[in-house]
């Protein structure tokens, strides 16, 4: 392994499910030996690709593939300013690809290289959204029939479907939602789901940072009696100090972190045991190398992992999530957004769901490949992102 070096690094952009994905391919001096990593930042794919092709490649050609830790530190410091999403995603693509190569050289699936399996498969939660309470309940039942034990319930999408909003003249266009209405409806939603579904299913809910801090506290308290598995992203990263107050006032389990990029964002939450689940987006924090350290840091504080697993993670990134899930003693649950046939065609060997558990292929490394010809049939889309232009009824811009 000592002699194997990096021969090429490049970004591959593809959108088989209509969502922009970025994968980094690292080719080595060993013919046919390469690794893949997820660098998906769906709304800025060109910038991440440029970071990979124009900055990481010239920096790293000829480096030994074995030296993942040193390469990670080198890239993290190379632009002087660090911990931003463009740099972190590019770094993640590279980092995962190097772990993939290390696994292939060792002849081991990544979970084995990370210390071995703590469980044969990772339990997932699915997402049930509906326009009516009956629709949400029907979706939950459908998942339960498929063997899924944990379901995240949402009524009218993130922030709810606002109705009867009173608005001043001249408000700007945007994705409007009404936090007070959303809060009332969410309490009604959880009451209705427990009434309808009983206690035999674990329920979760994603606030998606759509409330002011004092409302978030009120919601966490109001939902306590419905016994959530966890309440997700109750506040934006900028309001992390509020978790101290929330923790003192209620026992609703809390999951936080999909927007985090910088270790300082999670440090207090974990050290002071203010959350129960860490759910960072692994490519946003720089890949497997920092995620392993974060999982170990959480283990010491009794915090479990619930890595972010939405549609804007490539199957390569989902595989990285699941390998970590299998190898971490303090794994909690895995978000699973599902794959379509086009994703399976472009990414042979993708993780698969069976009876509420996701598994990875037993091939060495991450176990996922890419069919570049198929990927080219699904080009990424450019354009302005509109769903993140979120506003409160009076026109105030607020977090998406
Ligand atoms: O938990 C989730 O799945 C959501 O928060 C994501 O779908 C999130 O909205 C997207 O990843 C943003 O691109």
From TrEMBL:
Name the UniProt key words of this record, in alphabetical order. Answer: Lyase, Magnesium, Metal-binding
Gene3D superfamilies in UniProt: Enolase-like C-terminal domain (3.20.20.120), Enolase-like, N-terminal domain (3.30.390.10)
- GO molecular function term, any single one: mannonate dehydratase activity
GO BP, one example? amino acid catabolic process
Q: Where is the Mandelate racemase/muconate lactonizing enzyme C-terminal domain?
A: 133-253
A Pfam family of the record is MR_MLE_N
Q: Which SUPFAM superfamilies match?
A: Enolase C-terminal domain-like, Enolase N-terminal domain-like
User: What EC number(s) are associated with this protein in UniProt?
Assistant: 4.2.1.8
InterPro entries the UniProt entry points to:
DgoD-like (IPR034593), Enolase-like_C_sf (IPR036849), Enolase-like_N (IPR029017), Enolase_C-like (IPR029065), Mandel_Rmase/mucon_lact_enz_CS (IPR018110), Mandelate_racemase_C (IPR013342), Mandelate_racemase_N_dom (IPR013341)
Instruction: Family membership, please give it.
Output: Belongs to the mandelate racemase/muconate lactonizing enzyme family. GalD subfamily.
What is the designated name of this protein? Mannonate dehydratase
Q: Which species?
A: Oligosphaera ethanolica
